[in-house]
Amino acid sequence: MLHTVNKSPFERNALDACLTHAKKGSAVLLFEDGVYAATKGTAPGNTVAGVAKDLKIFVLGPDLKARGYDESQVVAGVTVVDYGGFVDLVVEHGPVTAWL
Amino acid sequence: MSQGDEPSFETGVVKKFLYLNRKAPYGTVYALEVLEMVLISAAFEQDVHLAFVDDGVYQIRKGQDTKSVEMKSFLPTYRALEGYDIEKLYVEKESMEERGLTSGDFVVPVEVIDRAAMGSLIDSMDVVLGG
Amino acid sequence: MSYEVNGKTVDHDEEGYITEIGSWSEEIAKIIAQAEGVAMTDEHWEVIRFLREYYNEYQIAPAVRVLTKAVAKKLGPEKGNNKYLYELFPYGPGKQACKIAGLPKPTGCV
Description:
Helix content of chain C: 40-55%
Strand order of the largest sheet of chain B: 4-3-2-1-5
CATH architecture of chain C: Orthogonal Bundle
Number of strands of chain C: 2
CATH superfamily of chain B: DsrEFH-like
Number of domains of chain B: 1
Radius of gyration of chain C: 13 Å
Order of helices and strands of chain B: EHEHEHEHE
CATH topology of chain C: Arc Repressor Mutant, subunit A
Largest sheet of chain C: 2 strands, antiparallel
Distance between the termini of chain C: 22 Å
Structural class of chain C: mainly alpha
Number of domains of chain C: 1
CATH class of chain B: Alpha Beta
Order of helices and strands of chain C: EEHHHHH
Number of strands of chain B: 5
Number of helices of chain C: 5
Oligomer: heterotrimer
């Protein structure tokens, strides 16, 4: 299963809802405003880093860049992917659960 | 004082306006819509204040590069506000710190104030427009 | 709706503002100016270039009050005033000059 989160963790509980439901070994992709959950120095970032050993966590690079973040500001255990990588994740881990 | 090809509303009444930004840029259209509203309202020569609270603090974060998401970045437009005589910009300290940001991360000069002071600022306004 | 320049077409809206800022060229500026009845001089081009630079820096077309102030700062008070700018662009340094410069209609223009 691929779970996606596209909402800010500060504004909605989509990330928490996703992380409490996702089964061990499944993939989680953070994109759009969801990418803020992967940034260092934040409580959601710590949460994401903490679950990265049980879940495969990815973040969409173009959305990070749009918001002024580069890979060095992403918490450990999270992999940055591009649009092609997004497609690969769907192919490899689908079906998709979108946490809106 | 304003003459030109814009409407001029010389009512003599200057009200304190606050635009309360609470949304991150790009994910939704709120940030851009508020910014456009601010620029338009500049013609009315009111006492304009901008506040950045919650995810709104992300709007003015430096380094935004939207080329790969094929959207126009409106980050540079915040720097034009000074030319519109809009210089009262406030960032809520708690919101900034929760997001791992510091006052050096912003593209425009801002005054960082705590949540209690933000509450007082909101309370002191004649008109508050959220987004 | 479009302008024809050297066999190429450049789209514009119902008021004559080109819709894609990247498609602007000096040739198009001359065509728009002609349609507006503006005979371009070095002084006109100076303002047009200034507007293009302003847009590149801030991603908006300035309101006329802001333009006037910014021109005064950059080119001096003898140019940064309504009289000078309206003599160059009788239909308004905001609307008319922005149109010739290939910028969108200034935000705040009704």
